[in-house]
TrEMBL record:
Its cofactor is pyridoxal 5'-phosphate. It comes from Capnocytophaga leadbetteri. One of its GO terms (molecular function) is transaminase activity. The keyword Electron transport does not apply. This is Aminotransferase class III. The keyword Cytoplasm does not apply.
Amino acid sequence: MNQQQDFLKYQAPTSPYPRLLEVERAEGSYIYTTDGKKYLDFVAGVSACTLGHCHPAVVKAIQEQCATYMHVMVYGEYIQKPAVDSRG
């Protein structure tokens, strides 16, 4: 089975006509596919639409947080500094 068949078999569709682009990487407002094409991402998710893909400051913050802890419990049980830090 190829990538497109696997995608269509295992992923819930969000539209009747999925683009079926195989993403190699994303940077800024663009998605780059495995066939070497560049697309302006008009379907960006919640954070990518405002920050762009792989924003260096966001990547750095995620790397630093993951080195400390990623997820310890649902919010409301433990104080997790990044969620309450007002310096952000």
